[in-house]
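Researcher: Good morning. I'm working through a list of sequences from a screen, and I'd like to move beyond sequence-only analysis. For each chain I'm collecting a predicted structure so we can compare shapes side by side. This is the next one on the list. No need for commentary yet; just the structure.
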Amino acid sequence: MLRRITLLVFALFIFGETWAQHSVARRWNEMLLTAISGDLARPTVHARNLFHTSVAMYDAWAVYSGTAETYLIGKELNGIETELVGVTHVDDVKAAQEEAISYAVYRILKHRFAKSPRADITFLEMDNLMKSLGYDPNFTSTEYTCSPAGMGNYIAQAIIDYGLQDGSNEANSYQNFFYEPVNPPLKVDVPGTSGVVDMNRWQPLQMSQIIDQSGNPLPGNKQIAVTPEWGQVLPFALLPSDASLFTRDNFPYVVYHDPGPAAQHSMTGPGGIEADYQWNHVLVATWSSHLDPADGVLWDISPASIGNITDYPTDLAGFRHFYDIENGGDISPGHSINPKTGQPYAPQIVHRGDYARVLAEFWADGPSSTTPPGHWFEVWNYVNDQPSLVRKWRGQGPALDVLEWDVKTYFTLGGAMHDAAVTAWGIKGWHDSSRPITALRGMAELGQSSDPNLPNYHPGGLPLIPGFIELIQTGDPLQGQQGEYIGDVKMRAWRGPNYVQSPATDVAGVDWIRADFWWPYQRPTFVTPPFAGLISGHSTYSRTAAEVLTAITADPYFPGGMGEFHCEKNLYLVFEDGPSEDITLQWATYRDASDQCSLSRIWGGIHPPMDDIPGRHIGMVLGPAAVLFAEQHFTKDAPPPSDIDELFVYPNPTNCNVQMEYPHEGKLPILITLSDGRLVRSVDATFINSHTSIDLSDLPPGMYVLAGVTGKEGQIGFSQQVVKY
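Model: Good morning. Structure tokens for this chain:
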């Protein structure tokens, strides 16, 4: 509980906010985050919970706004239709919105967290919040024409019904339909991989006790893959053209933005550090040697030295330049000045070992985890508490009142986090790639891959790197009582949880260990998440969120040019004692925070670079797409003009181009959307003699709507359905 309490107290102390000054939407979002922290750690499930409650808030606000389109209520969405007729006029619009929001979110949380391990405590807090707001928790009518409370209950029931049809298998507690791991469980308490079959595929772990990232003890002692079939879940702004369909064991895997497979391990070579699989995992191993503040390495971790990356590698060859395999970190140049103050960022010199450990634990966000999507809602709430934040959508137009701002931003961020979950776990489920604990222990079992003339050679083994990965020699403390380990591979790394008897006082430190007994920097009851590696969920969630926050604020920088989180000496770390000094994590931009999160998973022993970079690239696409799609709901469509009969589109159906005739000269934006309103692309068409041509050749077959944007306010001047075959 220390981390979540510290984060909340920090925000309230610095910025002077109180619950009474927060909007109703904010208060219910905080209640959801509390519920998530007491539930099972399922990032995909909670991304969906954040999304669905954000939809509830938005639709409850929109139905009374008079200006905005709802997302679900009164619509047909993904083949699911919800009625909305005869909404009664209300005199106090804001009061009605607040009441409808409260009942909608309250009912959804009661439904979604009924089986939560701490449901009794969470439900008591929910009831108390309802009562403190002046609402009766026992009012259950869904007659939405009579009261905002009924509207809220009606919206909640519609979202609950939608969720039971969205492909998540919620009715069966999100159980997998078909997925089964190909590898036997890895027994983490003994060296090796316990007989791994395929080092390219995910391997569940077996532990004496499993406690998830939120601190909940789980039944049994073997991991069960969490939502590897999540690509089936109905998305927010993802397009059918973004998806690929694959089949394994007669089960269809839907994969959005497929990055292709991870680098593959080979039993026949080529071996050595030049092999992509070896290089990726050796980097994880060498960074494990950084997790000790006693090594004396000092870094400036301020934005003056870290952040401001503008270019990311697009292939495995580029990774070798991007990451520093020996010293840690990446190519970020830092920021010369804080653009908000005009002054240089003050240096913050700390031990690299403290920085790396704090990063690993802060972005792991546990125990009492709100999971990565919830963590980014916490970051956003932190931003919203800063007095210098300007609540103008994309930095333009009038400042929004707090409720409208919170509702619209939660709706956008929630949709984006949900799309990140659907995308990342669709990729994880299909590619089913291994984790570093399997890869490093597995290669160590094979031997060394650097020199056929040295002992214990195997082309699929670990490459030797002096000072980091070597062979055990005679007289080495690791040789064993009878010298049985002479010739085996050793590595300099974090020594593991066996050297931490009391996390409050002990530090495992870094030293030479047998490579087949390598541990990630995690708790011994958690070790590695219960799902495949490629792609990094943290990288995908974080970059998606960073793009959303950048877009909706029209500013890449945190308010004031700095976001901060303080970690107190010898109190913050959970896995072991530390940090050895006070550390304040600092980020100039949202993207800097995202990039830092990505590196944390390498130091934490969870992901190699080949899991990380594709997640960042995909997040750069998901975030802007979610913002654009959310914005389409903020203004009701204008009625078509009277001259609509002057539009002529041909041929229809088409397999390539369509010709369009309309009384207009010069450029005119044309929106190409799906029939449900999701934007495919925007085209600046040039009309000459009232004629233009639109290229649809790269679109998959389906029904599309071509809409012309006219007028200063962006009204839809005309629209036409077109069939692409």
